[in-house]
């Protein structure tokens, strides 16, 4: 594998530079003095920002973008060998790294690298930990899968030995990392198009444990997580967190102050460490906060700084993000795309006292996930009062499963589905009433439906 000498900046080309993770890595290299070029299928605010920083951006991907002065090409899992730029790089014999391999090499430059893994909650927990470390004046470098107001995007380049990032299990990409601290939030059935079986998925997390150099922070209440840990050869410090006092760190005296504030006592082995206040809703976020606290304490951050940092965190982009309230109707957008995530989000919404009905507007993501977890999705979506589906976003897949949104809709009483975003938005905007909460759910581009519903509600409210 090609090894970068970070003391000698080179010319790096990013295929798919507009992606949330790729753009962050491009920014890190730009600020380190590297020359950066990149391509993406469409212009965006992200590509515009990178261009302002000095990157040369090509809209559209073609062989001519791979010029002779490029020293290294970086690509994502979404780029296939038949891609014109990929083929051109191979023909020119230009060294190539995956996104994860580049991230792994960047992490090696930091003494205290922290990788946040798990099927659910990575972005929120990474964000929480980022806020804590920033407040503690550790000046961390941060790469997160969502937009954070405090850092003005998804990347922060610090000048210390601290580096915080998400670690995604898909295609075993996080095996390119050797973190000082690894966090495992949970291990649930997902990405089975790649892993095929839960045994393979757990084995992947076991390898992630083995690659960790010093500390594991793991969910002691999650059976799959602990099976993965126990199967590993990791023999250094293991810190458990969870809901119960069977773990080193856990919450007690949980009190819901409002729909968007929860307070709890952070406990360590039966002793209260600090009263913590978070401003993101849901019981699952209490557990995410405990995980962030455990990792922060392992780096020497004080309990006071931990609470101060968490109290200023109001959520990451697309994580129960409140977009607008129009005519008494609140529009929220959330990244949930696995049944467990959808259920957690909808349970959180249903527990809120300020809303009469909850609408779930869901975009199923990938045919394999929809087919494999069909019944689980149906059970999760039924938590909402009203359910509307878009068509499935296939992303990297072809519909070899012969599965459609209509199949999922048939399992949910009263569920509607529409082939276009415009039809989905029109149905919801026409039928929502004052006191309703509308939540768009999915990791694809369903957020566009949320924006269109906003526009329609404004038009309706102005009539």
The unreliable regions are none
- What distance separates the N and C termini? 62 Å
According to DSSP, the number of beta strands is 21
As laid out across the biggest beta sheet, the strand order is 8-7-9-6-10-11-12
Q: How helical, in percent, are the residues?
A: 25-40%
Structural class: alpha/beta
Please tell me how large the radius of gyration is.
Answer: 22 Å
Mean of residue pLDDT? 95
The tally of helices reads: 16
- The coarse silhouette is globular
Quaternary structure: single chain
Question: What does this entry look like structurally?
Answer:
It is a single chain. The strands form 4 sheets. The protein has a 7-stranded mixed beta sheet, with helices on both faces. Strands 16-17-21-18-19-20 form a 6-stranded mixed beta sheet, sandwiched between helices. The chain is an alpha/beta fold. It starts with 10 loop residues before the first strand and ends with a helix. The chain contains 16 helices and 21 strands. The radius of gyration is 22 Å and the shape is globular.
Summarize the structure.
The protein has 463 residues and is an alpha/beta fold.
Characteristic key phrases:
463 residues, 35% helix, 16 helices, single chain, alpha/beta, 25% strand, 21 strands, 6-stranded mixed β-sheet
SSE layout and pairing:
Blueprint lengths: L10 E5 L4 H12 L3 E6 L4 H9 L2 E4 L12 E4 L8 H8 L4 E3 H9 L4 E6 L4 H14 L5 E8 L4 E4 L5 E5 L14 E4 L7 H4 L2 H14 L3 E5 L3 H8 L6 E5 L7 E10 L2 E8 L2 E8 L4 H16 L4 H9 L9 E6 L2 E6 L4 H13 L5 E6 L4 H6 L1 H8 L4 E4 L15 H5 L6 E2 L3 H11 L4 E6 L5 H16 L1
Parallel strand pairs: 1-2, 1-4, 2-3, 4-5, 6-9, 6-10, 7-9, 10-11, 11-12, 17-21, 18-19, 18-21, 19-20
Antiparallel strand pairs: 7-8, 13-14, 14-15, 16-17
Helix pairs in contact: 1-2, 5-9, 5-10, 7-8, 11-13, 15-16
